[in-house]
Amino acid sequence: MSRTIDALLLHRGASVLARILLTFPFWGSGLDKLFGFDAAVAVLEGFGLRPGALFAAATVTVQLVGSALVISNRLTWLGAGALGIFTALTIPLVHRFWALDGEASVHAFHIAAEHVGMIGGLVTVSILAALQRAARANPSRLPGSGAVALP
User: Fold this and answer.
1) Does residue 51 have a cis peptide bond before it, meaning omega lies within 30 degrees of 0?
2) Model confidence over 47-63: pLDDT tens digits?
3) Taking the model in full, what pTM does it have?
4) Whether 94 contacts 42, CB under 8 Å
């Protein structure tokens, strides 16, 4: 049974699907902002980010390019890093749970906590990409050989 599960998990299609799913919040939001650019500008300006058009353009770029890098497994560390920094910055700029009261504070805290989990997922995908590169460069460094330790 575990060999079957391992075979499914190690299949290239599973990796691509996982990367698509991991980045969905980013590329979905990026496409929404791209096709509703004026609304995106208004939202960002509502959070005090001016000029809104510049912040909206930067947000769309980070979300779409970062997602594409992660999904394609090319410069994954760069795409995941950009998305991770972007996600971390949204907490003090948008999800300021410490400055809110009642249910709004709880809701913002849950979103911030989800963002922290997403950052963990982005770090994980970067680690996996680095392990794949190391394995391709030197197959003797595959996990289990003693040269590369998996946590």
Assistant:
1) yes
2) 999 999 999 999 999 99
3) 0.88
4) no
Read off the amino acid at residue 90.
T
Which two structure tokens, joined as six digits, stand for 99? 């400055």
Structure tokens belonging to residue 119: 């950052």
| Token pair listed for 110 | 């849950």
The length of the chain, given as a count of residues: 151
Three-state secondary structure readout of the chain: CHHHHHHHHHCHHHHHHHHHHHHHHHHHHHHHHHHCHHHHHHHHHHCCCCCHHHHHHHHHHHHHHHHHHHHHCCCHHHHHHHHHHHHHHHHHHCCCHHHCCHHHHHHHHHHHHHHHHHHHHHHHHHHHHHHHHHHHHCHHHCCCCCCCCCC
State the pLDDT confidence band at 139, using cuts at 50, 70 and 90.
confident
Phi, psi of 13 (to 5 degrees): -60, -35
